[in-house]
Specification:
It is built from 4 helices and 6 strands, in the order αββαααββββ. With 169 residues, the chain is an alpha+beta fold. The chain folds into 2 domains: 8-59, no CATH class; 82-167, Nuclear Transport Factor 2, Chain: A, CATH 3.10.450. The strands form 2 sheets. Strands 3-4-5-6 form a 4-stranded antiparallel β-sheet.
C-alpha cells in the first residue's frame, strides 16, 4: 500500500474546518472589553463550480451594514404617587427648571405655572386627597395658593393635569 498525499476531498474538508475554526476564534474574541462599542462581523462563504477548489470563509473586522437598528428614545420615569407629582412639580418650579417639570405635569400646566417667576416665598405642601376624577393636591404660600388636579397617564404614571393659581394679594 502506497502512502501518498491524502485525497483532495480530505484536504478540502480539513481546510474548511481549519478556516471555520479561525473565523470562530476571531468572531468570539474575549479580550475585547464588554463596555466598548458593539463589534459587527460577517462571514461570507463563496462557492465555486469546480469541486476540487476549497470553499473559503472571510471574516471582516470592519463593521458592515448593521443587521439590527436601535432607536434612542427618551422615556419619562414613572411618578408613583399624586404626592410625588405635586411635590416634583413644585420643586421644579422653585428651582426654575421647566425641563424637570415635564416629568410631573402637562405642557399646559407648566406654561401656566411658569408664567409668573417663583417669588422665593416659602411654600408648604398641604397634601392630596382622592376625588372621583383623580386627586386634588394643594401647595400654599402666604400670598398664593396652587390647587392641582393629578391623574394617571396612559402608562400609569401620575401627572398634574390641571392647575389653578389663586393670589391673595
Amino acid at each position: 500500500m502506497a502512502s501518498g498525499p491524502p485525497p483532495a476531498p480530505v484536504l478540502v474538508a480539513a481546510l474548511v474546518v481549519l478556516l471555520a475554526g479561525i473565523a470562530a476564534a476571531i468572531a468570539h474574541d474575549d479580550t475585547v472589553s464588554r463596555s466598548s462599542a458593539p463589534f459587527v462581523s460577517s462571514a461570507h462563504a463563496s462557492s465555486t463550480t469546480a469541486s476540487s477548489a476549497p470553499s473559503t470563509t472571510r471574516t471582516s473586522p470592519e463593521p458592515t451594514a448593521p443587521t439590527t437598528s436601535f432607536v434612542a428614545t427618551s422615556v419619562r420615569p414613572a411618578v408613583t404617587s399624586p404626592e410625588a407629582a405635586a411635590n416634583g412639580l413644585w420643586a421644579a418650579y422653585t428651582s426654575s427648571n421647566r425641563t424637570a417639570a415635564q416629568r410631573f405635569a402637562t405642557d399646559d400646566v407648566i406654561r401656566v405655572l411658569f408664567e409668573v417667576e417663583y417669588s422665593g416665598e416659602k411654600g408648604m405642601f398641604q397634601g392630596c386627597r382622592p376625588r372621583p376624577d383623580g386627586f386634588a393636591c394643594l401647595c400654599t404660600q402666604p400670598s398664593t395658593q396652587y390647587a392641582m388636579t393629578v391623574k394617571t397617564d396612559d402608562a400609569g404614571s401620575f401627572e398634574v393635569v390641571e392647575l389653578t393659581v389663586t393670589s391673595s394679594q
